[in-house]
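Memo to structure team: turn this sequence into structure tokens by end of day. - J.P.
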Amino acid sequence: MSDYKSNQTKDLFSSQVDIQTKRFFFDLKENHKGKYLRITEQSGGRSSIVVPIEGIREFEDQINLIIDKSAE
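Reply from structure team:
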């Protein structure tokens, strides 16, 4: 039973956005390893990336860099 509890995932926050024909889910979760962001794209199938919470600011910096470059 302790293995079951250590493998549980807790949902902390969720949101979604629809862009063209795609739907993106942003889920803040927590498990025995810590907090993380899971970003899932749904467009026919599903694919996800996971960003550990410790790297979220660096991830944000890279997204902002892309946003800035796309406006040039």
